[in-house]
Amino acid sequence: MSERAFDLTGIDLHYGFVKALDGVDFHVEQGEVVAMLGDNGAGKSTLMKVMSGAHRPTSGHIAVHGREVHFHSPHDAAAAGVQMVYQDLALVEAQDIATNLNLGREPLRKGPLGWLGFVDRKAMREESDRELDLLGVRTAPMHRPVEMLSGGQRQVIAIARSAVRVTGESNGILLLDEPTAALGYEQTRLVEGLIRTMAGRGIAVVLVTHNLPLAFEVSHRIVVLNRGRKVADIPTADTENDHVVGWITGSRPSMFASA
Amino acid sequence: MSDTADSSAADAAAAAGPSNEGPAAAKAPVHEKLPKSISSLIFIRDRGIIVLWLFLIALFAIWAQPYFFSVSNAMLILSAGAISSIFAAAIAMGVFSGALDLSVPGVAAFVGMCSAWMISHDIPVWVSLLAGLAIGVVIGVINARITLVGLNPLVVTIGSLTVLTGLAAVVGGGYTIPGLDKLAFIGTDTYFAIDQTWTVDVQPWFLVPDFSFQLGGFDGVAGPVFVMAAVFIVMTVFFTKSRGGIRIMAVGGNAEAVRRVGLSSDFYRTMGFVLSSLLAALGGIVTAAYVGEANPAASPGIIFEGLTAVALAGVSLAGGRGSLPKVLVGALILATIGNGLTIAGADPYWALVATGVLLIGALLADLMLTKAVSRRLVSVGNLSVHGKA
Predict the structure, then answer these.
(1) How many CB pairs under 8 A join A and B?
(2) Into which CATH architecture does domain B36-379 fall?
(3) Segments forming the whole domain that contains residue A137
């Protein structure tokens, strides 16, 4: 937990005259879970979009594993090992779990059939089974279509789809946007477990949420944004619910001297 | 780190244990199987169309005996269904990839005219055929390019249907192009004919007295049937086994999902249009070959027959799902109804009525079965999730 997997410094982003982000510094280490909190309009989503390559900051620097990067599109971010799981899960409902997990990197069969683009479905299922096992989430048989899964299972599949893509050669960075917004208690516990397992395997996790109990449950560090500025950045163990609420609402002064 | 992970998994399992979703949820193993009631409902939903077809065959075998239930009549049905099933496949390609392609009749008419024009100008047959198919591919790419700008595929393909119908007439100066004898090998020629006849009497087990059917006296299999078989075999394998087919299905189901994993959703949507136009072109050529002349008039009936077959097959028009063999069965059901009612001596207009009733009935049955499945899924607590215990 020493190397900074993802490091953003002095991020400004202006929409016309509106400063959506004002000199925000943000970093996350390998194996660390950082919860990003803030009220609506505080800049969480905007910062996530900067991190995932959907928006380009007006100024500021972004570095992945110490190397400066410029994201022109989500594709660039994905190539650098940054994957985002959006609130709308974007799963292919009619297809099974294995196909969803492997879309875009389907294993081909060996020999001439493979040259013709034939997919090795058996290998695909076994590989998916193994990957979900490693993540500690086995939900349903791999050939079950996603439309027959519950909300929690779908969320798990969507997260796993990104997780298996960032755990390749280098440990990646996973951005989660409200992963438990639509889930019940038991399903939320499952996602919490999944987030811990992923961090345990070295993935850097950034978690945007309104769910304070979730943030306290899984995160190592809490970052609070207010009106486009970072007002708190503190190890979860060193803070408490009331303080965080104070930072979110603005009733508690920023940890950082205001510029 | 791993400590917390383990304990959390244990917590999740503990939380799952005394869950208030009923005993079924608590007992469900990690890799739970679907309960019998659900899997049988799914089986009916997925295979019902074949049962329906067999039922219709049995019905007409009794009602229209002895002429209906014979090999030669089966071949008649196949021939009648061959061309419309190729067009149904063309419509299905579009629907799979998430775009209803209405230009199919226009492509068929235009390509039929182009290939016929080339053949009548002494261009070798194989060149004319390949050129016709290539024109189909180009039209598919153009349809896709225009649609991907951000227009509704329905409207775009209605536009191209109109344009192509006009162009088809331009090619022949408004007239048909006759004399396509060179195309008879995929048209009127038949293969594997048998001259001898046997009549087999089956003493019935119950209900049906004097049930008999004929063997032999076989006129052979018409050319379009082979084209149909090739189309459905190749395309079914493509869509179920190959990377490209799986991705086209995925893009029809959720283009955003395809985009997010770093694939070009535009490419696979284009592929859908191209396959649709390619099969439409093939259908146009086979039609011209079967009739013996190319007709510039695009027949919109192709769309409705194709769509009926697709809907009978339970293919959602929303895209991303469906099975080609079932589309074939759907097209053959239409041919079976037409043939059976004619032999039974019913007024041919009843075929239309029966087809329409069947279509709406199939849609209702599909909807009710889907609802029943999801209701049962909820009630058995299958919707609860379980961490690895």
Answers:
(1) 129
(2) Orthogonal Bundle (1.10)
(3) 107-141
